[in-house]
Each structure stands twice: as C-alpha cells, then as structure tokens.
Amino acid sequence: QVQLVESGGGLVQAGGSLRLSCVASGMIFSIEDMGWYRQAPGRQRELVASITSGGSTNVADSAKGRFTIFRDNAKNTVFLQMNSLKPEDTAVYYCNAVVRNRLYLSNTYWGQGTQVTVSS
C-alpha cells in the first residue's frame, strides 16, 4: 500500500509564495510520473503541473512562469513552488503519483489534498 501526504498549503496574500510538498510512503519500488492537480468548488479538477521520472515537466498555461515542479527521488517527494500567487489560484491542491511496488506492479495514487487560499 502507498500513501501520499501533502503539506504546505495555507493562506497567502496575492503576490506571495507557497511551496507544496507531497511525500510518498509505503511499498514503493519506484515512482514514475508525479503531478499536482487543483480543484475549486464548482469547478473541474485541472492539472497544474507534472513531472516524469526522467525529469520532463509540464506546467499549465495559467501557471507558466509562476509555478515550478520538481522532485527529490531519494525522499520520494514532489514539490510545487508557487510564486506570484493570484486569487484565482485558490483551490484544493492534490498530489498524484504512479508507483511501482517490488513486484513491478503499478498503481496510481492520490493524496488527500491541501488547501491554498490567496486573498486579494
């Protein structure tokens, strides 16, 4: 079994910064893709940023130039550095990871989410 635990969310003023962290634990042989999604009330969940095991990244247009995704493989952790935050960034942010266990079986896991609120 694998668990993802997010942290780093909170309340910040527009223009401020936050760094989100997601730590994977459990029966992990390797972690493939990792990503951050967000969902605001009444809106669809959207991909914010993703990163492959090879380090290739993708960032949503709404976050380009402001958000950076990176990972620490030794700690099974993915980060989302958020700068120049805007009120429209307010949402619950979810961590996602594709994980292989020792039997080389892969599964997709989700964290419980961490709330980010940006005030104007």
Which terms would index this structure?
single chain, mainly beta, 7-stranded mixed β-sheet, 4-stranded antiparallel β-sheet, 11 strands
In short:
This protein has 120 residues and is mostly beta strands. Helices cover 0% and strands 59% of the residues.
What layout of secondary structure does this protein have?
Layout: E1 2-7, E2 10-13, E3 18-26, E4 30-39, E5 46-51, E6 57-59, E7 67-72, E8 77-82, E9 91-100, E10 106-110, E11 114-119
Parallel strand pairs: 2-11
Antiparallel strand pairs: 1-3, 3-8, 4-5, 4-9, 5-6, 7-8, 9-10, 9-11
What does this structure look like?
- It contains no helices and 11 strands.
- The protein is mainly beta.
- The strands form 2 sheets. Strands 2, 4, 5, 6, 9, 10 and 11 form a 7-stranded mixed beta sheet that branches.
- It is elongated, with a radius of gyration of 14 Å.
Question: Radius of gyration from the CA trace?
Answer: 14 Å
Mean of residue pLDDT values: 97
Which series of helices and strands comes N to C? EEEEEEEEEEE
Alpha-beta classification: mainly beta
The unreliable regions are: none
Residues in β-strands, percent: over 45%
